[in-house]
């Protein structure tokens, strides 16, 4: 088990809830009489994973202490001393984060016991439930364990026994997680930083001789990755066209074909043709043949391959990065993957041999966990691995825009899986199957492939038919709510602007969506334009692609046909002046909003000009390169925006990585003091140049 980092989500953190019973309440003198602990995993108490042990302290138990916890001298006869107990406890908890109520006391007495027994002591990473509750609800009359349990509706049992109090503290911690999310405290680092800000509470603990209950977040040891797996996509590695045989062909014929073509697998379908839905196919591999021959002998040679082809066929998208294919093979313990296009059509095959050089090289740190997550906690655990991968990829000098594409891939996968889980939940709760075909869309930066580490939810739902507030619409409203709740719990917060399928403005039938587009284009009110632009960045992640394609085609065709609409979109690019009267950058708490003053002008200009000039690309880079190819705008200006786009994404990702591990809430603001002076100058020059973008767009609107 890898140790937790500041990026570890609280909801997916592996922890041990701890409590001790002692000879007294003076941490400088108390001896441990009992240790109790219980495991916490993915936001749930694991009652089967518990630890309870009496400890012979080697001295008499004061009667006053016995009256509280009921432990007497007679009960300690024959019990292990602290040295033996400590060894067993460390074996039980491992590197897990310790959680407890007023845990600074427990840490202090443990440290003292280690010192008395001449045992090495390293302060474990820990969280104090009392401090977390103070962060979540500072207005409680007090933050005792009993008060917290009553507030959160936690059942209390075994009070003043080490295990009973550990279980209660663990349940309180789990119940605090949604309360902390509402305070924007989601990760271990953010929790630690929030607790460290409670200076008065910490000082009271220090005066009582307690240990510091939490540690200051630190950046973990650097881990390298194989950049090849993050630079190349499956489509460039696969074998194509795939070799397909009919289900009726014999094993003998299949073996002869594999030998002749020097391949290790064949795809099998009734039609025996490629370019059909992946669901139509099975697969036969060299290993399948050997197993069947071993079991049935030569008689197996005359069997039709369709009788032992493996189904369903595991697949990966051609546009996915290679790391996704590696993770899927590892998860499913297979050596071959079908490759499909975005519509689900078979286009190739990928084998372990194709990826051998990647498997033999450095770590592939992003696995396939998202695709089989069963809930928000598992999604959160998968999402949390991104920070370390991004840090490593930037160190490998991979283009920051490619890194943003990888983040976007994970965000889309998160949204796709959350949609699947939401649909399963709808059926489990008796709401039935979807009432018609539908698609879940990711909008904005996620749709463009330019997400960073501070995304919120920009999603929408389009369905085949149904009126607003009708039966179908209400079904998809509930689906959108479950989708949004799952993503929020998993670490992708609700969109502050309400751009989510749960809200009526971003949900509707295809006809409803087309009517919206017509109203946007014809009326073009400023209020309409606040969110309309990101709809032009849509990317389907789940459901029926035909619905998404129809909406995209209609929106682009109408936007392109109405010059006034594109012109008004261009006028939205103007932002507040980022410079002071003396010419310096206007900062807030020492930080500059890179998204507002840098990325937004570039992204909006590329999108607006792409709509106006009929360019149907999604990413900012592809849009700008297409404009250059059409000779729209000066090549020097466009290339400067391309370079600036990459530079700004890199600056922001570097800052976000620092913030993630420091427990600072990740945002779109960059601390100028943390940037080298040369880059500060480059940033200032770029931001000043971008002030002319609105005028440039106006000039190029009718070029």
UniProtKB/TrEMBL annotation:
Coiled coil: none annotated. Residues 238-301, 309-366 form the CBS domain. Keywords: CBS domain. It comes from the Bacteria. Transmembrane segments: none annotated. InterPro entries: CBS_dom, CBS_dom_sf, DnaQ, DUF294_put_nucleoTrafse_sb-bd, GlnD_Uridyltrans_N, Ribonucl_H, RNaseH-like_sf, RNaseH_sf. CDD domains: DEDDh (cd06127), NT_GlnE_GlnD_like (cd05401). Its EC number is 2.7.7.7. The keyword ATP-binding does not apply. SMART domains: CBS (SM00116), EXOIII (SM00479). It catalyses: DNA(n) + a 2'-deoxyribonucleoside 5'-triphosphate = DNA(n+1) + diphosphate. Pfam families: CBS, DUF294, DUF294_C, RNase_T. PANTHER family: DNA POLYMERASE III SUBUNIT EPSILON (PTHR30231). DNA polymerase III is a complex, multichain enzyme responsible for most of the replicative synthesis in bacteria. The epsilon subunit contain the editing function and is a proofreading 3'-5' exonuclease. This is DNA-directed DNA polymerase. It comes from Aminobacter carboxidus.
